[in-house]
Amino acid sequence: MLIIKNLHARAADSEILRGIDLTVKTGEVHAVMGPNGSGKSTLAHILAGREGYEVTAGEVIYEGKDLLQMAPEERAREGIFLAFQYPVEIPGVSTTYFLKAALNSVRKHRGLAELDAMDFLALVKEKMKLVEMEQGLLNRPINEGFSGGEKKRNEIFQMALLDPKLAILDETDSGLDIDALRIVAGGVNGLRSKERAMIVITHYQRLLDYIVPDYVHVLSDGRIVKSGDKQLALELEERGYAWLEGQVQSS
Amino acid sequence: MDIAEAKDFYLARFASIEQGLADDGRSWTSEIRRAAIARFAALGFPTTRDEEWRYTNIAPIVKLPFSRGGSEEDGLTGERIGRLDLRNLAENQLVFINGHFSSELSCLGRLPNGVMAGSLAAAMSNSKAKIEPHWARYADYNGHGFVALNTALMEDGAFLFLPQGTVVEAPIHLLFIATAPDEATVSHPRSLIVMDRGSQATVVESYPGFERAVYFTNAVTEIVVGESAVLDHYKVQLESERAFHIATHQVHLERGGNFSSHSIALGGALARNDVNVALDGEGGDCTLNGLYVTTGQQHVDNHTRIDHLKPRCTSRELYKGIMGGKSKGVFNGKIYVHKAAEKTDARQTNKNLLLSEEAWIDTKPQLEIYNNDVKCSHGSTIGQLDQDALFYLRSRGIESRAAIALLTRGFVSDITGRIKSAPVTGWLEKIFAPKIEVITADKGKL
Ligand SMILES: Nc1ncnc2c1ncn2[C@@H]1O[C@H](COP(=O)(O)OP(=O)(O)O)[C@@H](O)[C@H]1O
Ligand SMILES: [Mg+2]
After folding, report:
1. Which CATH class name applies to A2-250?
2. Could you tell me if the CB of A202 is within 6 A of ligand 1?
3. pTM (two decimals)
4. Measured between CA atoms, how close is B319 to chain A, in angstroms?
């Protein structure tokens, strides 16, 4: 489904990604771990189409197409979804209106009819339950005044609504207390399916107790320095990232 | 024409107007008109050396020998009016064509006893006692060349009078349509709104023009909000993209009066809009909301001045602008707290969104305070579209232009959200949509 080959990218003057190789197949869940500043969010942003990064080498193939040539909205319609590490607050733009616009553009692309107000609301309510999100948030501007936990739930709720093929979750666990983490992880697990792949980015192993990955990759200084199964996450938790930084130098 | 020729041109126009006044019982206005034209002769047109006109060069207006627009409904077919989509506001509607009142196109619903709504020219002839105490008493023809010109040359405009305690529920729409079918025309619409004690109304003043028409609207509206009266006022400037528009709203508030205004400027090649409010009675309250959206080569200048003259008055001002293309916006807002105005509570905010590299805004909030016992604040911001927000929307499948439209609408939502009248909200929603289309297209070209 997704093939990343030798991806190099820079922003401003600094080289952030220095040769990433990663292949994700339909139905798989990949965890990407790594210390702060290792390039996890940059990778997620580049996959979702954020401007401001320059890809200096390598390529990304998504379902046989050159992903890097596609506009962010095209990627979303083709089934890519990014749950942001820091969801932005957008004053003055109603959450409901936004969700309707997003859902209908994605549905249209998939050859589905636009939902009328009643069906839309029913679907929204159903998906909100998944992450126990309060319905009152729909009446507020996008993320405005939401607590950290509410923002993260909102991301997973949107993922449920838009039903992507490839979901990238960027530190969805950060800033959540244990109860909220359980709810959000429960929501994500509910969305696991044979038709959907996920890249779960996290700094801590904690999240992976709830969302058990098929593969774990460790990113350090813009490179994947180690890949393995879920055992790798546990090992990393025990030994710390310093263990792998040593490996980078020796490799 | 050069400036001297333009001046002579308007002075000559005055001579011809003055003769007509005697015939229809308006000769009592001559004295003030003469004083006004004398002031105009002395002041001339403002230049950018004048502090109040520093950012707005009116030379393009001076160059054109505008002829006097006729009252005929030339080119004003039902279809063209329909395009303006004013049905929401059709219950009480006074229509002016190139500044001339059209009784055929105007209509009024049921109004309470004693309410007067119609042509100011007619009222000047028939109801001098109602007009004379107010007309030209507020708008300053001594200091402002265009106000002087309007005062001297005005032919007609709207007159509204609400007697004590009357409440008019449905908005009263004053519609000033410029037709300018073939040649460049000028009109000097002059309106007077007098709200007697405890009365209440919603008034919409709109200035639409037809596509590509070249003309000059030089409007002045004087408003008196009597003791405890409440006026909710909307001015909507929708002139053609080649038109010139200069307007002054002069508002006089008495004790406990409440004036709330929305000044919305979407049209015009060169537009200048002054809103001046004198809080001249204790406990007066004024809210000024402004919205200007400019595209292409437009230039829109907003001036506001709030004079706190008496104690315990409140003013709230929020002006927001969106500039795209190579357009230019100006905001100049002055709050003047006079010595006697203790316990003044004044807040002023101006926020601007620049959608292109070449768009420009000059913003100048000013506060002058001559009393220590007051609460005042002001501030202005200039920003670009939030790229994180734009990316967020696009990453959910929303097309770039639609995302920009959502963000620009979001930016102005606090202004539009303050519109109290539902028919006005509905109407503005419609006229705002095509403007947003243009501005996102402007942005898309970058
Ligand atoms: N737009 C940008 N411009 C300049 N530097 C950036 C930009 N985005 C990220 N960086 C830098 O790249 C490095 C990796 O950042 P990031 O991808 O956010 O890491 P992580 O998500 O793993 O914490 C950091 O040093 C960060 O400062
Ligand atoms: Mg990050």
Report:
1. alpha beta
2. no
3. 0.91
4. 16
